[in-house]
Amino acid sequence: MPLFPVDPSDRKPIGGDTVSAIGLGTWAIRNPRRALEVLVEAVETGLVDNVDTAEMYGDGAAEELVGKLLRIVGRDRVFVTTKVLPWRLWRPEELERALRASLRRLGVSTVDLVLIHWPLDDMPVAEQVKKLERVAISRGYARYIGVSNFDHRQLEEALEATASAEIVVNQVHYSVLHRRQVEEKLLPLALRNGVTIQAYTPLERGLVARHPVVRRVAERLGRTPVQVALNYLISRPRVVAIPKTEQRDHLREILGALGWRLPVEALEELEKL
Ligand SMILES: NC(=O)c1ccc[n+]([C@@H]2O[C@H](COP(=O)([O-])OP(=O)(O)OC[C@H]3O[C@@H](n4cnc5c(N)ncnc54)[C@H](OP(=O)(O)O)[C@@H]3O)[C@@H](O)[C@H]2O)c1
């Protein structure tokens, strides 16, 4: 038996919305023109409807790029996640200023989801989450709030802290080669509480393509290692994978991870990694 029931759906819940099981990241873009073409193509296929960005990426340039995407494909076709730098939480006016700047770069009046990029060490988690809720939700800058890089204890604390909004997402490093930390405690907690896990660095920056076990499974199934690595993640309930690419052929390979599921024996083999 695999560790989690296999989710056969290519749609995943986030709060009261559903999004595609694969979204696209926007960190470390080398060629913005090509990256934009790939993002547009991804949305135009109808297979991708969520994009991840952050005020930190390219010092705002990634949000501007996502803004261009929204103007080309239409605001309503993309669920946008962005992230605020955690030290904004020290001063509400600073947090508000940062959120307004993100919205301006994105060219939207409300972002779908805003995350605390990583937890502050020197402020209680409850206080961090309450501050985000107070500014982002109460003033209408975001539809949903969430966290990123929170471990299971921090997520538990965050879940207890909000007053009216829910924590709908924890975005964490999760891949077939970096799975234990997530699968042992975090994902079970997320599943119990209706929190979606956005899996970042799902390709280990391309490393999954060279891993012998992933390659062996891929060869056996007539898929590529990248497709196996992504399919492993989206086979989990409430897991959305957010790989990054700015190459058309890579996008097509990524999209080939949708529409099928690894057989149980393959999942079990990969769960030993
Ligand atoms: N919350 C956080 O703290 C946090 C941290 C890291 C990342 N993230 C988010 O997660 C997203 C993805 O993570 P990531 O960028 O770290 O890593 P990733 O998605 O695992 O890897 C991206 C790298 O893999 C390459 N790649 C993409 N498709 C490929 C394919 N089919 N075959 C071979 N190589 C391929 C990309 O190159 P090409 O562009 O040339 O295809 C890029 O160099 C980020 O963009 C960001 O939005 C969040």
From TrEMBL:
<dbReference type="InterPro" id="IPR036812">
    <property type="entry name" value="NAD(P)_OxRdtase_dom_sf"/>
</dbReference>
<dbReference type="InterPro" id="IPR020471">
    <property type="entry name" value="AKR"/>
</dbReference>
<dbReference type="Pfam" id="PF00248">
    <property type="entry name" value="Aldo_ket_red"/>
</dbReference>
<dbReference type="GO" id="GO:0016491">
    <property type="term" value="F:oxidoreductase activity"/>
</dbReference>
<dbReference type="InterPro" id="IPR023210">
    <property type="entry name" value="NADP_OxRdtase_dom"/>
</dbReference>
<protein>
    <submittedName>
        <fullName>Oxidoreductase</fullName>
    </submittedName>
</protein>
<feature type="domain" description="NADP-dependent oxidoreductase">
    <location>
        <begin position="22"/>
        <end position="272"/>
    </location>
</feature>
